[in-house]
Amino acid sequence: MEAKEIDAIGHKYYKLSLWIIAGLTLLMLLLLGGSPYWNSSVLNAILISAAFSFLTSIAYEASWKGIAKSSPASLTKFYLAAPALRMMAAVLLVLVYFIVNRSATNVDGTPAIRGMMLKFTFIFLAYYIALLVLDCVYFAKVEKRNKL
Question: Which residues contact 73 (CB under 8 A, 6 or more apart)?
């Protein structure tokens, strides 16, 4: 592949991931905005999940372009290692969120961490799975097109 083609593939991935993140954020805000589950922890979960997804998709795109330009033979290793690194970063983020919010309480004084963690985890998983599917489908099509 030429450098121009690699840049175009990376730019298209960046645009698709940005559209998916923006779409999911809008969908979450519309669905959860008027529900009884809406509170500041849900908004924080949406914002943290969108920011994490955006930053990891930028890192994924930049590292894919770098590897595709310098050593395309190593792309198969990249397709294995990059999702594993993203998963480790996601687990670390969930743990940090839990540690930061472990002393949160409801209005009546009861611990609120269980409800907060469930909401955060489900919202975060929606973003994580959406981008994981995008990575798999998009780069499988890219590889298939370039091998033929």
Answer: none
